[in-house]
Amino acid sequence: MTRTSTALDLLAPGTSARLAEPDPSLEPTFREHLAAYGLVPGHVVTVLAQRPMTVVLCDHVELALEAVVARKLRVEAPLPQG
Length: 82
Fold this sequence. Notes:
alpha+beta, SH3 type barrels, four-stranded antiparallel sheet, two-stranded antiparallel ribbon, 2 helices
């Protein structure tokens, strides 16, 4: 079964989704920095805001991401609410 993915910057605030593999154009050293904050494939994040920056909740930590970064982070289809 193929899973669909979308860019993190396209999710509405309040949506939770599981991170997929990032866009291959994201530099490996930058991926390591994101991994230090828990932004790794398989991890669930919740979008808190999209403007002026993408703000996500990851393991009780709020992280603000620039649009160019959020666009390169892929997520699997949003998780069901509830």
